[in-house]
Amino acid sequence: MLSGWAVLLGRSFALPWDVVRTWPRFLDQLFRHGVSAIPIIALAAVFVGLTTAVQTSYQLLGIVPKYFVGMGVGRMLLIELAPVFAGFVVAGRSASAIAAELAAMRVSEQIDALKVMAIDPYRFLCLPRILATAAALPVLVVLMEVVATAVALVAASVLGVSTATFTYGFTRFVMMRDFWGGIAKSLLFGLAIGASGCYYGFSAAGGTEEVGRAATKAVVTSATLILLFDFLTAIAVFGR
Amino acid sequence: MIEVRKVSKMLAGMAVLEDVDFVVPDSGGVVILGRTGAGKSVLLRVMAGLLAPDSGVVAFDGRLLEFGPLADNSEAMEQLGYVFQGGALFDWLSVVENVALPLMESRRTGRRKAVEAAQRVLWRVGLADAAGFRPRELSGGMTKLAAIARALVADPKYVFYDEPTAGLDPITRDRVCGLIRELRDTESRASVVVTHDLETVRRLGGQVFMLRRGRLLPVSDVRKEDYEPECA
Question: Which segments of the protein form a coiled coil according to its record (chain B) (predicted)?
């Protein structure tokens, strides 16, 4: 299995890249896995912001100064919640879609057709998809952070934390390392999502039932890798 | 010349190919007849480097095909056109884009020239009117013709046809057979056709083999009696 992943990544990313031919395919995939995910990411962000504000207020109000709500919400969102939630949403949406699409191409011999046309299917199909999910996820995470923070700000004011107090806690204690740490891990999550989808799509063998199986495996593997990379970046970036 | 030497392949514990040994000359045609499940498509896939044999070798003009995840047979594949049984056309591209794809992606031809070449080949196979269609809008016969056009567009030396007439009505079957014969006889493109259809074998002629129980046997005169007991 590890050799299969190595072949997939090696053949997809080996130089030289044909940038001119890859670019339009990358943009197409970026639209599918990035731009098209904006509504669901925004919707998820609203609920993440609401829930985070309510939970943080419940745990901190009356114990510590109110501006700690702004700090707690900000750091939770930037370090953990936005990257992981957005990662899971994109994993459920894109890893399954990529795996199902490529598995369907595998069972209908379209990937074999590329090989006999002397077109490298890894470069043609995998490279733009993996690049697109890796490029889209950090942007979607920033979107989720912005929307969730704005919603949390409003929710906290309803719960008795003024906008000025919330903003003070947020700006005083949230550091750039929190932001960049979250972005770095989301980049890894994006790579994991695209690669999982491509790996299981390409590995499909047999009939149409393999299409569904490939999609399921891709989502499960993406989610597992997201948790693993989350832990590893927690140690690497925030470990001391 | 394509040489297939002592190729054997087991699938699900069954010997699908056993010491298959034959040569596809630079011009002329080879037709491989066999009942459904005899291993014809497996043989074609091995010959195109898509499936690794358990033993034996395949060579395109003396160059051995590589098998496995790191195999790169692009040089040999540039000489090959392959017509898949189901067409294997890409759903997200129109017919003309499907046909132009090998030129644009493999031969690095510019889009405009590739599309012009694709339109010429589509006209030749009688599918010019369907150039803008999506594969899902094509009938079975049109799909086969589009797949043939895609196989021909890069001017290959060899063309493999996997069941080119399966599921076609008699008129379309005659049209496809006529096209294959014309390409083979007038343009000297070597062809390998695998089929279960005796009528197709009769219409194509050429060097005929029968694949029976994994063995490839030369057939000088295919008679219904030779073939039909296998189906029983």
Answer: none
